Amino acid sequence: AQSVSQHNHHVILSEAASLELGCNYSYGGTVNLFWYVQYPGQHLQLLLKYFSGDPLVKGIKGFEAEFIKSKFSFNLRKPSVQWSDTAEYFCAVNKKTSYDKVIFGPGTSLSVIP
Amino acid sequence: GAVVSQHPSWVICKSGTSVKIECRSLDFQATTMFWYRQFPKQSLMLMATSNEGSKATYEQGVEKDKFLINHASLTLSTLTVTSAHPEDSSFYICSASFRGRSGSPLHFGNGTRLTVT
């Protein structure tokens, strides 16, 4: 069965610091990969996705992620975080077949201190 | 863009009653919708996959008789929590993907906060 792990449960950073959130998945087949963000009191929003092609994908709000197939990883990065990036971040994966269910990681809570 | 509408956004009910939550895809056809549950400070846990015109597929540990799912049309799936108890209090979220687009990212509803007293 697919599973997703995220390296950090809670990350605290000062504004302008660089961010990297780790994500690993366990599935031997071809997958689609996602990062979602949930701001306090709000619903999920898609930050970025990887389907195929360039393993370095850029998303909204200055976020990017790199798919490293050999490591089964899809880490999220941002060079300089802002206070408004305080949120819960979820890595997710689904099998590259039509309409397959998406499995979410446990989430990483990011707190950015002004 | 695509929108998934979920209703109601919050509901309070008494223990033993049933609650129905609707999930609609507003501008696209969704042959498949997914129902998730999110406890406070936790991740989204998939409850079931709702397929239009057929029975839902439930994840291990989810009681199908307690969480009734109906997907009668390409734009509507409903989740009914039957004989609700306080431990069913949670945040329920539906999602849907475009018909005919393999691997398309899911679009999420805004969720329903259920509180059972």
Describe the structure.
The complex is a heterodimer of chains A (114) and B (117). Chain A is an all-beta fold and 114 residues long. Chain A is globular. The relative contact order of chain A is 0.34. The model of chain A has no long low-confidence stretch (mean pLDDT 91). Chain B has 117 residues and is an all-beta fold. Chain B is built from no helices and eleven strands. Chain B is globular, with a radius of gyration of 13 Å. The interface between A and B is medium-sized, with 21 and 22 residues.
Strand content of chain B: over 45%
Poorly predicted tracts of residues of chain B: none
How many helices of chain B in DSSP terms?
0
Radius of gyration of chain B: 13 Å
Largest interface: A-B, 21 and 22 residues
Q: Secondary-structure element sequence of chain A?
A: EEEEEEEEEEEE
Helix content of chain A: under 10%
Query: What distance lies between the first and last C-alpha atoms of chain A, to the nearest angstrom?
Result: 41 Å
Order of helices and strands of chain B: EEEEEEEEEEE
**Beta-strand percent range of chain A:** over 45%
Mean pLDDT of chain A: 91
Main sheet specs of chain B: 7 strands, mixed
Q: Oligomerization state of this entry?
A: heterodimer
Helix and strand composition category of chain A: mainly beta
Main β-sheet of chain A, in a few words? 6 strands, mixed
Radius of gyration of chain A: 14 Å
Q: Unreliable runs of chain A, pLDDT <50, ≥5 residues?
A: none
